[in-house]
Design brief:
The protein has three helices and seven strands. By secondary structure, it is of the alpha+beta class. The protein has a domain at 95-175: SH3 type barrels (Roll). The strands form two sheets. The protein has a four-stranded antiparallel β-sheet, with no helix packed on it. Strands 1-2-3 form a three-stranded antiparallel β-sheet, with no helix packed on it.
C-alpha cells in the first residue's frame, strides 16, 4: 500500500471514531433530570372584553361638514344687530392710503395756528398730515401727533374675518446728519 492509501485510511478511522457514543448517555440522563425539575410558570391570559357597538343617534342633526351649516352661521352673523366694527368702504381714499404704513416715515413736526402737523416722508416726497387724516392701506386714522410720534388706529381683519382695531405708531426718524 502506498502512503496515500494509508493516510486516507487513517483519516477515515479518525472520522468514524468521532461519531462514537462517548458519554452521550450521561448527557441525556442529565437533560431528563433538569427537564423534570424545571417549573413552568405561565400566567393565564385574561378574557377579552366584550365589544359594545356605539349607537349613533345624531342622524337627524345637521352634518358639521355641510356647507349649508356654514351658510346658515354666516347668515346668522349678518343678522346680528350693530354688525360690529367695519371700515367705511364708501369714503373717498386719501393719497397717503395708497402706501403701506411700513413705507411711511415721520421726519418732523410743524405747528400752524396751534394745530400740530406731522411731516411724513414716502419715497423722496414729504407730506403734511394732521389728526383725523388717513394713512396706510389698513384704513389707518391718525389719532394724535406729538413731537416724536404719530399715533395711528388701523382697522384690520383677524383670522376669523372680523374687523378689529390695531394701534400703530410712526416714530420720528433721526437724520444721519445729526449723528456726525
Amino acid at each position: 500500500m502506498s502512503i496515500r492509501h494509508l493516510i486516507a485510511a487513517l483519516a477515515g478511522a479518525l472520522v468514524l471514531a468521532g461519531c462514537g457514543d462517548s458519554n452521550v448517555q450521561e448527557v441525556r440522563d442529565w437533560m431528563k433530570q433538569v427537564d423534570s425539575s424545571a417549573q413552568v410558570a405561565v400566567t393565564p391570559i385574561s378574557e377579552p372584553k366584550t365589544f359594545i357597538p356605539f349607537a349613533y343617534a345624531a342622524q337627524q342633526e345637521i352634518d358639521p361638514f355641510s356647507p349649508n351649516k356654514l351658510l346658515a352661521e354666516l347668515a346668522r352673523l349678518d343678522r346680528k344687530p350693530g354688525g360690529g366694527l367695519k371700515p367705511d368702504m364708501d369714503r373717498r381714499k386719501e393719497f397717503l392710503e395708497t402706501f403701506p404704513l411700513d413705507t411711511v416715515k415721520m421726519v418732523g413736526t410743524l405747528e400752524k395756528s396751534r394745530v400740530m402737523y406731522a411731516l411724513l416722508q414716502v419715497d423722496k416726497s414729504v407730506y403734511q398730515v394732521r389728526a383725523g387724516q388717513h394713512v396706510g392701506q389698513n384704513f389707518g386714522l391718525i389719532t394724535g401727533i406729538t413731537e416724536d410720534a404719530v399715533n395711528v388706529k388701523e382697522i384690520v381683519q383677524d383670522a376669523t374675518g372680523d374687523w378689529v382695531e390695531r394701534m400703530s405708531k410712526l416714530e420720528l426718524q433721526e437724520s444721519k446728519e445729526n449723528h456726525k
